[in-house]
């Protein structure tokens, strides 16, 4: 039987303020926990209704009833296992960023979009995502589930992206790109192998803070060319199409 204070603590991690206060977040599901166990993240404790699904582990394991796991879970239909994980301390080294392609997210709000973007980054070998401070937290349980384990393999940094972009303008050979309806067709544009790809809020796109002539505006064209069927694409879809073209140039 799991102590009520333990259940209360795990349940408190559903809320951002408590995740920040304790430096912990939760991961649920057999597949997710198995991926987690192969990462460098520190698992503090495991709760499971079926101990047979766990292989050899040095992590403390507590047997839970379905009712107890349900009380701790952030899911409508709890899985068989839940992990409490220490939030990693991500160090942002700008010298490292100068040599790579990274995503910069401004005020992304939807957990599903955030999770999908993290999965895309992992698929296309993007190691770092730079997030504005008002972007949805990557350790939100809905984001964690949507990443399908990619969260454990991508570095997520919450930082002052505006100062970082100003600094990046001084890096030689470094490109800064943003999708825009008045941008140059991405399939004709010159794209650097290292740079920032900026993606903005689902409803409003990038803010006026990033209306900078030094940022290269690129367009994902609709078909047939010159037609415009809607105002914009979903931000995760736009991210996928944009990053795919950058990576295609490097094949």
Task: Kindly describe this structure.
- By secondary structure, the chain is of the alpha/beta class.
- The protein has two domains: 4-86, Ribosomal protein L30/S12 (60s Ribosomal Protein L30, Chain: A), CATH 3.30.1330.30; 94-248, SPOUT methyltransferase, trefoil knot domain (Alpha/beta knot).
- The chain is built from nine helices and ten strands.
- It has a six-stranded parallel β-sheet, with helices on both faces. It has a four-stranded mixed β-sheet with strand order 1-4-2-3.
- Strand 5 (101-105), helix 6 and strand 6 form a beta-alpha-beta unit.
- Helix 1 (4-12) runs parallel beside helix 4 (66-72), helix 6 packs parallel to helix 7 and helix 6 (111-123) runs parallel beside helix 9.
Q: Determine the CATH superfamily of the largest domain.
A: SPOUT methyltransferase, trefoil knot domain
Number of domains: 2
Query: What does the overall shape look like?
Result: elongated
Number of strands: 10
What do the pLDDT scores average to? Answer: 93
What is the count of helical runs? 9
Helix content: 25-40%
Structural class, by secondary structure, is alpha/beta
Radius of gyration: 20 Å
């Amino acid at each position: 039987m799991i102590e009520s204070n333990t259940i209360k603590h795990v349940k408190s991690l559903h809320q951002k303020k408590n995740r920040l206060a304790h430096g912990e977040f939760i991961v649920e599901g057999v597949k997710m926990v198995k991926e987690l166990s192969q990462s460098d993240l520190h698992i503090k404790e495991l709760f499971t209704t079926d101990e047979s699904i766990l292989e050899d582990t040095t992590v403390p394991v507590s047997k839970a009833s379905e009712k107890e796991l349900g009380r701790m879970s952030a899911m409508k239909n709890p899985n068989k296992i839940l992990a409490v994980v220490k939030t990693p301390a991500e160090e942002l080294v700008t010298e490292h960023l100068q040599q790579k392609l990274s995503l910069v997210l401004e005020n992304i709000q939807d957990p599903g979009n955030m999770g999908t973007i993290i999965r895309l980054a992992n698929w296309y070998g993007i190691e770092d995502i730079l997030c504005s401070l008002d972007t949805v937290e990557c350790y939100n349980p809905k984001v964690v589930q949507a990443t399908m384990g990619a969260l454990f393999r991508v570095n997520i940094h919450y930082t002052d992206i505006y100062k970082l972009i100003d600094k990046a303008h001084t890096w030689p050979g470094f490109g800064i790109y943003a999708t825009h309806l008045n941008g140059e067709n991405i399939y004709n544009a010159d794209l650097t192998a290292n740079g920032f790809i900026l993606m903005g809020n689902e409803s409003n796109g990038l803010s006026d803070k990033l209306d900078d002539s030094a940022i290269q505006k690129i367009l994902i064209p609709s078909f047939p060319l010159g037609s415009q069927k809607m105002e914009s694409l979903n931000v995760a879809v736009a991210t996928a199409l944009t990053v795919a073209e950058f990576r295609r140039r490097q094949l």
